[in-house]
Model the fold of this input.
Amino acid sequence: MRLPLLLVFILLSARIVFAQTFHIRQNHTSAQSNYAAKQLIQAFQSQGYTLLHDKQPEYTIFLEKLNPTLGAETYTLERQNKNITITGGDERGLIYGALSLVEDLKNGVKPDKIAARNERPHLPFRAIKFDLPWDTYRHSAALDLHYETCRDTTYWKAFLDMMVANRFNVLSLWNLHPYTYMIRPANFPKSTPFNDQELAEWKTLFTAIFRMARERDIDTYLIPFNIFTSPEFSKAYNVNPALNNLDHKHFVDGDTSEIVKRYTRESVTQVLDEYPDLTGFGLTLGEGMGGMTPQQREDWMKATIIEGMRMAGRKTKLIHRIPFSSTTGSLGVTSVDTEKLTRKSIEAEGALDFIEGPVWADLKYNWSHAHSTPTLVKVHGGKLYDTYFNPDPSEYKITWTARNEDFFCLRWGVPDFVRAHIAANNQSYVGGYFLGSETYIPAKDYFTALGTPVDWTYAFERQWLFYKLWGRLLYNPATGDEVFRAEFSRRYGKAAAPLLDAYALASSTPLRLASAFDFTWDFSLYSEGMMAHDARKNVSYISVDQLITQSPLDPNYVSVQEYVQKRKAGETFDNQQMTPIRLASLLEKDCRKALDMVKSIPTADNRSLRYEVADVQAWSYLGLHLAEKLRGAVALQTYRLTGQFQRKEEAIGHLKLALEHWDEVIKITRPLYNDMPLVHLTEQKGSSWEENNKLLFHWALLRPEVAKDLETAQNAVFP
Done:
């Protein structure tokens, strides 16, 4: 018997509605389990499913009680018919299991197609280094402009959501002197510049940051620099006015007076007491500690921050940044003796019963530019000896700070570079990584010229691939590229899937420049702008002459000068050596391939996708520019040594092409990007940048400097 059409329609509609219902069953309640459940509910609802509480749903997701035998941060996800069970080794593992399911749902995977899986952490410490924009390490308008954004808890919610989604588990907040923004010290009330209402607003902010981090099971550390006090404290209490450092300059003698020690110690204790969700503190030995020996610096830390932690009466965690100076100067060099002293101190700290181990002992990977070669060449201060690793430490783990002072505007993503970095640091003594910058805060978006509609509000959201690559691969290096490709497709449709491979090719450009061009501190290289310190210690465009003479960072790279000299002498190079000509060929091959991969991606109706594609194009033309510049540099230096006139003509031809590629960068970026404030430039008082370009960066502003390379070749003479 045929059913009436209306009845068939009603039954089908009921089936559709029934098939799109779900329920979350929490077998234990905690702030972390509640967060995991909330993320699942939002993900299901975004895909059209309805949450049921009092009826039988089609799908049930069980957030199981924790199973410590799985291990910290581990999870299992199992599906039996239409029941999905997530079990965590701890609260953090439970969240990660839930977020793994969330990712599948957002990518369009149906609940009854969810595959079983389990994951465990590769490295236990995966941190973001975040410089707060008040009392910043560097004083700069480029950092000050983030002030209001970073005082908005909406920003921090978004940032912390990004962190946990990408499996970062530590937020470290860096500030020259943070205490007076957080407390009114009981015995030094005049040290805080704020009235009660203003201080209450600051306390609300920090309380919210730490609470939201705790809900996501993200550890939080406060990392002050030393030795600093507030200007108000110095004026009201300092018994040694000669050591007042009201401008908070870094490289000054340390004030080791008893009142400063007491003030610091009591501030640490009070901060821990008033912010119970704060996980721990960090030590930095260097700034504001001039005139002190390495032992005196360690003793000062023990008497202040470590003792302040003890007085708080609760267990806390500790980051001990390994010092870079083995002298009494603020800027020194590394030494074996300092390593021995520091290792002894850290081992002793890790054995204290009020410190929850391990202590995280931090070093800067390749100084300020980890985005160079995955090979460890040096740390801040120079050479790293083996004292910290041989034998394996018992109370601490080494962490590597992967500083990014090289690209703030253009999006970046090279999965195999991150994998190679992690594989090179797989030793038993390694605990993890910090990721962040000293000269850039990922808060206010001051880059975007087109305005809305775009898919982001904050600066860190523009660099989503950067954070996703580092975070997910630090947690599980076996995470495949399909995870990152799927994110491009989810955001922009299937036509955008080639973007991951295009980025991997094009944004290798800054890595190759930083491998070929040696550096030290922050401003000694800015790869995105093809800028570096010149002879006057100003940050300017890297001239062809500077490219010729600069030594490489990576031991396998060969400088232009060495290459030309050895070729003139009849020497050859093996296949392991990256010569300038070989590097130029590699750059050209990869960048042209990247351009070809994105040329058919439609961007007319999607501003956000237009930026993604444009950044691939910008990196590609910067790579092509560098390739021609390397060829021109080799030809120019050969002419200078041999007098072969045709080599001068070759140099002119290559540098003309280099300028044309730079003009393509300008053509791509000028309509998309504002002139940008950079700390690299705002600290250059009295420079031509301040006078002529108002301390702003854009590739268009550098064109006159780029064109000078052509003049250099045209005016070259054989001695």
Notes: The domain at 19-119 is CATH 3.30.379.10 (Chitobiase; domain 2). The chain has a mean pLDDT of 93.
